[in-house]
Amino acid sequence: MQLVFLSGGSGKRLWPLSNNARSKQFLPLLEAPDGSMESMVQRVVRQAKEAELNAQITFATNAAQRDSIINQLGTDVDIVAEPQRRDTFPAIALAASYLYFTKSCSDDEIVVVMPSDPCTEVGYFLTVARMADEVRHNAADLVLMGITPTYPSEKYGYIVPEKTTNTAGSMPVSRFTEKPTVEVAQDLLHEGALWNGGVFAFKLGYMMNIVRKYIQAASFEETYARYTEFPKISFDYEVAEKATSVAVVPFTGKWKDLGTWNTLTEELSHRTIGNVLLGDANDNTHVINELEVPVFCDGMKDTVVACSPDGILVCAKDKSETIKKYVDSLTLRPMYEERRWGTYKVLSDVQYEDGTRALTKTIKLRAGKNISYQIHHHRDEVWTIVDGEGIFVLNGESRKVHRGDVCCIRKEQYHAIKAITDLVFVEVQIGTPLVEEDIERFDWNW
Amino acid sequence: MQLVFLSGGSGKRLWPLSNNARSKQFLPLLEAPDGSMESMVQRVVRQAKEAELNAQITFATNAAQRDSIINQLGTDVDIVAEPQRRDTFPAIALAASYLYFTKSCSDDEIVVVMPSDPCTEVGYFLTVARMADEVRHNAADLVLMGITPTYPSEKYGYIVPEKTTNTAGSMPVSRFTEKPTVEVAQDLLHEGALWNGGVFAFKLGYMMNIVRKYIQAASFEETYARYTEFPKISFDYEVAEKATSVAVVPFTGKWKDLGTWNTLTEELSHRTIGNVLLGDANDNTHVINELEVPVFCDGMKDTVVACSPDGILVCAKDKSETIKKYVDSLTLRPMYEERRWGTYKVLSDVQYEDGTRALTKTIKLRAGKNISYQIHHHRDEVWTIVDGEGIFVLNGESRKVHRGDVCCIRKEQYHAIKAITDLVFVEVQIGTPLVEEDIERFDWNW
Fold it and tell me: Which of A203, A355, B177, B391 is found 20 to 30 A from A328 (Cα to Cα)?
């Protein structure tokens, strides 16, 4: 069985903790059973393993999230990153091609596609197992999870089942309805309709037949290269609504979308995360602080405060939906990023009168990891090693560096660094323009 | 005429903008007539000049505030810094000795002592001029300003005048009452009592006679050296309440103590200062942001948000009095300071597992200023010049430095830097302990 987690989204509504490089599913805000903090993707992968689904896991994602997935989940999971953002059908089609060609899965392999960010419980994964069983026993070509609705929401898609029941308790699907009005949703609830949870089970061969309608390829690489030939359309429209043999397995239990600060804070175990002091007069107020400096909060009610290197949010919880429309004007560049080699945080970014910028970062490189051999055309860099040991390469010469050492890198100089132990350094970039794209990468044989 | 401004206080109630090194009177939050921002001390000195008092100005302060005063007021004002914090009587006694010995003022010189942080208007300074006239015409030895009360406050001292009036409108003082209950304050208002505004006018000789009761010195330096011989007592108790010839001049007009966020924000011209975006649903909310990163605020009512390198405050305005009791547990070290050579800001302060700390700062040195020739015993420093030009001295060798240059300073190495143009550099300190005291200073002939 193959589990495919869909991981996308820009996470604007959880600004300033989420940004283009760190979507909501990577925020380490949830409490794991051992008391440590985990992100949504870490939680959902942990829960899938605990449910003993015996599934191999693949993340269908985009290039911007690849490093976060590697950093948070290690090499336990496979990653298929689309070459450009399209929609859920192309993303799932690419993942199916990866399973078929690269992982050599058979046409009979059961594939379950699901979101990477549901806030849910073990029963959800037992439902996934039942969906897989229904596919295995040919109850339908496509089996969906139907969430038992708790209110007539306008936000979700609805699945209307027929009144009959298949072998293991799945129901044939009568029709789909997308985002109805509250009145229509009310009627749908009376009909026994379920929310579409975005979980789809099918045999790989079924999906590959649909893939071949658009791209008849002989390899994953070819499919990847021709990715733009897939239509920009959702899996629901392209596959689920066109399917002639489709069934639904209901799930009744905890299922929430932690997409706004209002819903996310309901799931937090503690009122504060990070360096925070609360006065005596706060009520239903959550403070999340990823900065070093302290936050003090008093006299607040139904408020969320969130601080990160990207900015500071102070918002009434019932207004937290509104962040999305403002965040584009707040976002300059990501001030914190997870990369496959570790993390960086911007400490200061100043432009001087003549247009030259100075950008100061703290960079943490995990033991054994390296930054690729590269040159910059428009900036000098000065690295001051503040913790750990590493190997620094400049113009082909390598030397050991440790705390207190300084690496001066001028424009056009070839350089790289590898961490022997966990390595921390302060980087000052000076130049114009200071952009990520001003990197030319070369090979270095460590 | 000599104006002596008293400048002290720790400014805890305006955390995180004020700290031990930057009291409230130095916060550049008020709007000057030309639209630029000014601090309370800049405003009060500007107003004193505009009132054409033709006075020379001396600040009686402590060592921690000396650099802020120089930085904000330049060399227009004299500074007398007490060697240790005692109380207002010793501070005024030291300032009187400075006027007498160092500035060679005569016994007949009129001295007016006043706080450096009143939020007031031109009439206040006209009242100061009338007080000086009363002293000049010998209406009394000591003339105080009495603020016409607006409510029966428990916070202030009261001056009860006699029902008679002197020549120019001053009234002899009948008695003083410190911080009465509301009921007593109510009775005092009926008696025509005035608030004690902390403004005192006297002839220098009068004050020097009191000084000599404690220290008979031949010079300012001797007085300074024997400073601890002055009793720790307020000027009100030691001088005003013991005086036999004391009068009061009333002032009716704007007079506020901007000592809490609640009162300070009432005086701000704009809802926001700095990089701030307000949503549509805020009410009576002020946001002051001294950080580079943006603050977004929505759905807040009667709230103050203040962000500085020291920390972040989110507080209901009517709770802003409570900050004081929490701030000691929030304060580690000042993260921003004004020095006579410029300013510094802490960007990051991290302690590693072995106890070694790394402190990253941005330092701005004003053109012509220098950091003294010094060594450190416990830390290395790396300076990366990001803007401007200067002269760097290392172990007796000097060289020009400019943008992109790096200065590596090891423990026990003699070093100094002087700005030719305004100079900005990023400093990384590495060592343990990282304390201001780890400086040994030497002379360098620039």
Answer: A355
